Amino acid sequence: MTPYIELKNVNYFYEKTEALKDVSLTVNEGDFLAIIGPNGSGKSTLMKLILGLLKPMQGEVYLFGKPVSEFKDRACIGYVSQKSNSFNSGFPATVFEVVRSGLAKKTGLFHRYPKDAEQQVKAALISVGMQAYINRPISALSGGQQQRVFIARALISKPKILLLDEPTVGIDQQNMQSFYRMLTHLNTHHDITILLITHDVDAVSKSISHVACLNRTIHFHGYQQELEQLPDQQLEEWYGHPVRRVMHKGGDRS
Ligand SMILES: Nc1ncnc2c1ncn2[C@@H]1O[C@H](COP(=O)(O)OP(=O)(O)OP(=O)(O)O)[C@@H](O)[C@H]1O
User: Which family does it belong to (predicted)?
Assistant: First the structure.
């Protein structure tokens, strides 16, 4: 099966800084992959390469089997950044309007929304558990609720994969757990493949299926349970500083 995302031996430099070295990684249909790494380990650079915003100095990036520079079907990819929750948050838009704006990816900015736009907005909001907030101003929601709305906006174009760049920044521990449960639900019940980038090892919870440890290069890529078996010293070596792991035995990925 063609991987959704594939990086082959990718190198990236910013002037003298070697941000990524010989990075190879695949994301397959159905994966919920978390890429974890400390500050400055190259996570954002990796995301920019996948989004086609940066070009590798060496190596290749493929989306759905095509070189990223030739990939045009943007609706296949939903992207939510850590800054989404501050984006336009003072703007007097309702949750409905924010989610509906995600349809522009398919209709184009200056086209009319489809007749069933309202149904599509409601369905997207139901999938992230935010249907009760449809008429609220976006600015009146908490950071975690806003992130769910931005995920609904990404989902409305019916992407095959969701790319999430540190989506839980600023969200408290309790809401973070329910946020991850919501992502697991999207992955297991709505067939959404997820690539999540985080600097927080705690994010490696029972929610995800796979994990990759990045610190300029990929030190580990495998099942989340395999990472659990590794000694803390190994993780600390990759991270370059002590780590605190909150691992959950068993799982609710059913
Ligand atoms: N525009 C830039 N110019 C020069 N160096 C950069 C630039 N952007 C990033 N870097 C450097 O490249 C390395 C990787 O940065 P990157 O932002 O990808 O890391 P990150 O893992 O996303 O970090 P964080 O978790 O702090 O957001 C760092 O050493 C950083 O200082």
Answer: Belongs to the ABC transporter superfamily.
57 alpha carbon, distance to own chain's centre = 24
Cα–Cα dist 9/217, whole Å: 10
**How confident is the model at residue 177, as a pLDDT?**
82
pLDDT over 60 (residue 7): yes
Shortest-distance Cα residue to atom 29 of ligand 1: 40
Distance, in Å, from the CA atom of 254 to the CA atom of 246, rounded to the nearest integer, reads 21
What is the ipTM, given to two decimal places? 0.98
Residue 248 banded pLDDT, cuts 50, 70, 90: very low
Ligand 1 centroid vs 15 CA: distance in angstroms? 12
Q: What is the pLDDT of residues 25-46, one digit of tens each?
A: 999 999 999 998 888 999 999 9
What is the rounded distance in angstroms from the CA atom of residue 26 to the CA atom of residue 135? 39
Whole-angstrom Cα distance, residue 237 to residue 38? Answer: 12
Which protein residue has the closest C-alpha to ligand 1 atom 16?
A: 42
Residues 40 and 160: their CA atoms lie apart, in Å, by: 29
- Residue 184: closest CA among 37, 77, 28, 31: 31
φ/ψ region of 108 (left if φ > 0, alpha if ψ in -120 to 50, else beta) reads left
Q: Please name the residue that has the structure tokens 């989004």.
A: 51
| CATH no. for 5-90+161-239 | 3.40.50.300
pLDDT digits (tens, 9 = 90+) for 165-204: 988 877 777 788 888 888 999 999 989 999 999 877 666 5
Query: Closest ligand 1 atom to the C-alpha of 41?
Result: 21
Q: How far are the Cα atoms of 27, 103, 110 from residue 194, in angstroms, in the given order? A: 9, 20, 30
